[in-house]
């Protein structure tokens, strides 16, 4: 839902800037990110934790939702940690001089080169996802005579109520070590074997990690995850005499894409997580670990809007009207991939015309190229109008492609009535530069 203000001419304003002006200067399609909103959300997540050590912030922004150098700087300035899951994301973070000790490195198949680079950079946490990786990271750390702080990623067996492709804690998927199957306890043994080595142990186990999925509204899944993970913390204490200080419960907090979505705020989620972890730990006479979370979408999604220009309007008698815009599945694959719902508005003007049920589609050579499946737009929507699609700040630019040799739109930050280009629009020269003939 777009609640942004309109000026006296009726055009939508973002960060104090009229969208028509913005489109005239920067072109369409364009991703527009409200910097103040992004920063406010980041601050709210941290505030929800109350007091904490600023060197070890309990909130790690999930860079996969959207990362650029400026956004990494925003995260650094607001005091967040950062979750990266590839060498590329790590490179952007380091290029922005993000404090490496506040970075957590994820991934189910990190390469030896990626692990080495992260160790050299001084990355704060490695989340281990396989036995091969435990050995690889230990070898890389031994080679460098350093110690990597690690967490073991646990599959807690929760069926998160979300799309199958973004649920991650049921048993039949690629991430983590199964808790129920005893694999997680085995992974812990594997990591702890390296304690017995030389003077500098290559791996230091600091905690457990669980991520149950994405776009989740119900805290019950997190509570089950916390319950099971704390059970493993207790088992580790009993078996190894080791009390792990950290428990990372991952990201996945849902946001409102349409008025039917009813997300919880950061304060109530964090309070619920703290309460359940404290209660479970009490039951095992365990000290409560530091809880960390990794929201991506909940920080970067709502502050983002995509601006498109309408090119054609095709009414199909008795069916619906197809409104084609100048982007599509290359800049937002989520509708096609997850059947995701979005909301859009006519942004360049207001209209008194009756609302009609329309489908906003892109310009790609594919019938599934849908941006907004069910869009209520005024019946007089016409070529040249600007449409704004809400809540596209997460997983749109970061999952964008050059399908049909589309040029990726720019990412613009708006703040106090001015825009700044964070990522510029691609050009045909950019595409041709990769094509060596
Ligand atoms: N932590 C871990 C370990 C993750 O795998 C993820 C997301 C997050 C945190 C952040 O989740 P968030 O708070 O943003 O939901 N492309 C999909 C989402 C995939 C998310 C993958 N991992 C989408 O567009 O919905």
UniProtKB/TrEMBL annotation:
Its EC number is 4.1.1.20. InterPro entries: Ala_racemase/Decarboxylase_C, DAP_deCOOHase_LysA, De-COase2_C, De-COase2_CS, De-COase2_N, De-COase2_pyr-phos_BS, Orn/DAP/Arg_de-COase, PLP-binding_barrel. It catalyses: meso-2,6-diaminopimelate + H(+) = L-lysine + CO2. Transmembrane segments: none annotated. The modification N6-(pyridoxal phosphate)lysine is found at residue 64. Pyridoxal 5'-phosphate binds at residues 252, 294-297, 395. It is an enzyme of class 4 (lyase). Its cofactor is pyridoxal 5'-phosphate. One of its GO terms (molecular function) is pyridoxal phosphate binding. Residues 303-393 form the Orn/DAP/Arg decarboxylase 2 C-terminal domain. The active site is at residue 365. Keywords: Amino-acid biosynthesis, Decarboxylase, Lyase, Lysine biosynthesis, Pyridoxal phosphate. PROSITE patterns: ODR_DC_2_1, ODR_DC_2_2. Substrate binds at residues 297, 334, 338, 366, 395. Pfam families: Orn_Arg_deC_N, Orn_DAP_Arg_deC. HAMAP family: LysA. Homodimer. Belongs to the Orn/Lys/Arg decarboxylase class-II family. LysA subfamily. This is Diaminopimelate decarboxylase. It comes from Actinospica durhamensis.
